[in-house]
Write a structure and sequence with these properties.
This protein has 290 residues and is α/β, with parallel strands linked by helices. It has 7 helices and 16 strands. It is globular and about 55 Å long.
Amino acid sequence: MSTARIGLIQAANVINDESVPVSDIQEAMLEKHLPMIDDAAAQGVQILGLQEIFNGPYFCPSQDARWYDAAEPIPDGPTTKLMQEYAKKHEMVIVVPLYEEADAGVYYNSAAVIDADGTYLGKYRKHHIPHTSGFWEKFFFKPGNLGYPVFDTKYGKVGVYICYDRHFPEGARILGLKGAQVVFNPSATVKGLSQYLWELEQPAHAVANGYFMAASNRVGIEAPWEIGEFYGTSYICDPKGEFLAKASETEDELVFADCNFDEIEETRRIWQFYRDRRPETYDVITDSKY
């Protein structure tokens, strides 16, 4: 299939109350998403991406161990199992970002990729983990160790990059070299320092690598941390870096676009970046002294 309808869901957290058990907060957010997933299916979406750690708040402004309770195994946890049922029900590929428990006390910021028949294809673990004011991610996540997989789904070849990863072009290039036709970047990012990069870096990845990018972000302000307003504007762009669809800054929303994968070859015939790249000159990138 050369064309796929690609969709993204952005949504505000439902319960912003630290007195509520973590499991109740997660359940409320999951229940919010299920009808939105149904709506995506009704709109003909074939590959759907959810936002970073979709079934809860972005809890990394805290350093509270209670949020370890939000982690679950992938693929044997309940959320992956449920999303497998939804993928099969709707014949839809779903990228499901979750807080993953890999072992006792070992956690990753991950995304499960589920094929349209409900088959679990594998997962991506976020490689680049920020640790700066308001974003204490190293308290919660171990850096990813599964490389940069590309998943061959019913509707196309899917890569995943998560949030802070987007600032690093190396992994984005690897995904292209491994054949990704669309790369999803589920994020949780607020207004401020990096907002101007949101619509700059990922279209640049699309252009440099000749593939489609699907970037999702949540909306709203999450108490009690209130590190800023998540500004939404989830979008899909083509290999020329042109926006095909874009969501609002404030609303829960499904955004989707029809992506013709034939445009990948057409674009690469114009911009011969893969022909002209010089990997034999790039050793310094992996030299530990730099």
